[in-house]
């Protein structure tokens, strides 16, 4: 279970202080949570604070009741937190097999590495020896990023807009990945997304906007509000018919 | 060879005597092991230090090993190796130099290699430089390579200096003939107070000739690196040089490219990028459970592969 207590995050923006997260308090103990909200609302910042990439200005973070606020990225990773970046990182000279092996945290055979790639819809033999460099497209990189979290299989995984750039791959497969992940690790999967089909399989939805949690409730209560702009629904949200 | 020399040899060469290939091992200034084959002869030079390596036309898939090791502190040598590679030959030449210096006197190997590559011949050249030892004596290597490429020939050259060489000045000059292709990859890591300077000078003289120079380097601590490359396009040709460096600590790297087109059909490109390891690369690997220094090591290893 993940608990954020009174998390604030400020940065120095020129002369001014800018508050990107404002007193965020939330308890996550469901298996499948979606976070949604407009661009610039603070979703990725929240994910980085969970992974330890950013340190909150105030507040604390608890994982299974243990305070991890002072733990660094490595320690949190070893405690069972995984984070698939919104913008995956490229590396010169490091191959797909290398990153999957590093993610698995132990020596794995090529065959095992290939199964993770197949799960994200990549033809393993075409990718396994390729470098994770500029030659890969954004969508390919996103899938490799997801394959890395599968290889890690930790109790908490945060995916930051995993659907971006994978239009040609069916959402159904992506959703299968999440379902399989939470079944096998019996932990929580948090997905930052704008996609209806992803929000639709979540148990709960958190709406983040202007650095605050505006709503946090069962999917069935939140989704209708998002879907219907007339009743205050939101433009950021991508339904099946909307590809803005 | 004693144990120290054998272990030094292993650092720079994968030669073993069962291979039956042509070999000349030079240890502390003397040729200690030599083998020639039907197609590859190795002759000691009469007028100066060094050897002539003569490869018959049409030789296929042979390896030639010419490692040099120095384990005596204070040993300094200048050696000339001339390669004559016959037309249509296809060979791999594995050179390399290892210096072990436990003393306080300077040890140095300056090797001048000249390649005469015949028509349509293919040469793969591999070279590893390595230094070790506890003494305060410097370990210095100054290789000079001259390459003359005849019509349709190709050379694929990979040089690696990863550890322990205090000072190196590397000069590579090539004259590339009609339809000949030269590929150079240089890998360098410097640390401590090391100094490395590399200089490439390539004349693309033949129609449809080409060169591709890639330098990947990492400079740590207080080390200094200089990269110079000069490509002259004198005919319809393609030239590309790329210098990519990671800088750390208080190190210094400079890259000075020069491309000159003397022909309207010459196409020349130079790219240079110098920068520290991207913070997001380290962070990504840390989210996989690596420590910061493990992450750094992985990134450098990959980069220098
Ligand atoms: N380190 C930072 N310095 C300055 N501004 C930042 C920093 N990190 C995030 N921001 C700003 O905070 C806001 C929230 O960003 P982000 O968390 O990426 O939003 P989202 O993921 O919801 O689109 C944006 O306006 C962004 O520009
Ligand atoms: Mg974001």
Strand content of chain A: 25-35%
| Unreliable sequence segments of chain A | none
Distance between the terminal alpha carbons of chain A, to the nearest Å? 35 Å
Biggest sheet strand order of chain A reads 6-7-8-3-9-10
Structural class of chain B: mainly beta
Order of helices and strands of chain B: HEEEEEEEEEEEEEEEEEEEEHH
The CATH architecture of chain A can be named as 3-Layer(aba) Sandwich
Rg of chain B? 20 Å
Which shape of chain B, going by the Cα principal axes?
globular
Can you describe this structure?
The complex is a heterodimer of chains A (244) and B (305). With 244 residues, chain A is α/β, with parallel strands linked by helices. In chain A, 34% of the residues lie in helices and 27% in strands. Chain A has a single domain, classed as 3-Layer(aba) Sandwich (Rossmann fold). Chain A has helices at 43-51, 73-79, 96-104, 110-119, 124-127, 138-152, 171-185, 196-199, 219-227, and strands at residues 2-13, 16-28, 32-36, 58-63, 66-67, 81-84, 156-160, 188-192, 204-209, 212-218. In chain A, strands 6-7-8-3-9-10 form a 6-stranded mixed beta sheet, sandwiched between helices. Chain A has a 4-stranded antiparallel beta sheet with strand order 2-1-4-5, covered by helices on one side. In chain A, helix 3 runs parallel beside helix 6. In chain A, 42% of the residues are buried. Chain B is mainly beta and 305 residues long. Chain B has one domain (3-279). Chain B is 10% helix and 58% strand. Chain B contains 3 helices and 20 strands. Chain B has helices at residues 3-12, 279-286, 292-303; strands spanning 22-27, 30-35, 40-44, 50-55, 60-70, 76-85, 90-100, 107-117, 122-132, 139-141, 144-149, 154-163, 167-176, 181-190, 195-204, 209-219, 224-233, 237-247, 252-261, 266-275. In chain B, strand 3 (40-44) and strand 4 form a beta hairpin. The mean pLDDT of chain B is 95. The A-B interface holds A 51, 53, 72-74, 77-78, 81-83, 85, 88-89, 91-95, 98-99, 102-103, 105, 131, 148, 152 and B 216, 244, 278, 280-281, 283-292, 298-299, 301-305. The complex binds adenosine-5'-diphosphate and magnesium ion (MG). Adenosine-5'-diphosphate (ADP) binds next to strand 1 and helix 1 of chain A.
């Amino acid at each position: 279970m993940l608990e954020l207590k009174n998390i604030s995050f400020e940065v120095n923006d020129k002369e001014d202080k800018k508050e990107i997260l404002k007193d965020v308090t939330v308890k996550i103990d469901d298996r499948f949570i979606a976070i949604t909200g407009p661009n610039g609302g603070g979703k990725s910042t929240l994910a980085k604070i969970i992974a330890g990439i950013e340190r909150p200005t105030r507040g604390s973070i608890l994982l299974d009741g243990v305070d991890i606020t002072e733990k660094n990225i490595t320690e949190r990773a070893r405690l069972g937190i995984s984070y698939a970046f919104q913008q995956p990182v490229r590396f010169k000279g490091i191959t797909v097999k290398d990153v999957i092996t590093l993610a698995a945290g132990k020596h794995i055979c090529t065959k095992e590495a290939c199964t993770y790639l197949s799960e994200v819809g990549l033809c393993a033999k075409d990718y396994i020896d390729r470098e994770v460099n500029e030659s890969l497209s954004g969508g390919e990189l996103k899938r490799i990023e997801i394959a890395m979290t599968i290889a890690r299989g930790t109790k908490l995984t945060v995916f930051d807009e995993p659907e971006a750039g994978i239009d040609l791959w069916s959402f159904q497969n992506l959703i299968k990945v999440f379902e399989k992940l939470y079944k096998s690790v019996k932990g929580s999967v948090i997905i930052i997304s704008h996609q209806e089909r992803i929000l639709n399989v979540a148990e709960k939805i958190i709406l983040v906007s202007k650095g605050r949690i505006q709503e946090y409730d069962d999917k069935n209560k939140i989704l209708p509000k998002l879907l219907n702009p007339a009743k205050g629904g939101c433009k950021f949200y991508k339904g099946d018919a909307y590809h803005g | 060879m004693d144990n120290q020399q054998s272990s030094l040899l292993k650092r720079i060469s994968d030669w073993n005597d069962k291979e039956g290939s042509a070999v000349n091992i030079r240890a502390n200034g003397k040729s200690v092991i030599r083998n020639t084959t039907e197609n590859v002869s190795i002759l000691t030079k009469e007028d100066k230090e060094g050897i002539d390596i003569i490869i018959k036309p049409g030789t296929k898939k042979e390896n030639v090993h010419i490692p040099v090791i120095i384990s005596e502190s204070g040993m300094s040598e200048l050696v000339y190796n001339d390669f004559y590679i016959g037309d249509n030959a296809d060979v791999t030449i594995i050179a390399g130099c290892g210096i072990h210096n436990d003393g306080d006197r300077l040890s140095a190997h300056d090797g001048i290699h000249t390649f005469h590559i015949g028509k349509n011949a293919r040469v793969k050249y591999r070279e590893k430089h390595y230094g070790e030892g506890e003494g305060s004596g410097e370990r210095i290597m100054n290789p000079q390579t001259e390459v003359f490429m005849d019509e349709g020939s190709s050379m694929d050259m990979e040089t690696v200096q990863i550890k322990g060489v205090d000072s190196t000045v590397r000069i590579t000059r090539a004259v590339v003939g009609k339809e000949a292709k030269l590929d150079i990859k240089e890998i360098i890591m410097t640390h401590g107070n090391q100094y490395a300077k590399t200089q490439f000078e390539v004349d693309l003289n033949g129609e449809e000739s080409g060169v591709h120079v890639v330098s990947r380097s990492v400079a740590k601590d207080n080390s200094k690196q200089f990269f110079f490359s000069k490509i002259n396009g004198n005919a319809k040709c393609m030239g590309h040089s790329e210098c990519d460096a990671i800088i750390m600590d208080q190190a210094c790297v400079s890259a000075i490219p020069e491309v000159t087109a003397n022909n309207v059909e010459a196409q020349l490109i130079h790219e240079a990028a110098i920068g520290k390891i991207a913070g997001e690369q380290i962070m990504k690997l840390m989210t996989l459970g690596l420590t910061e220094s493990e992450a750094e090591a992985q990134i450098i290893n990959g980069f220098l592969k």
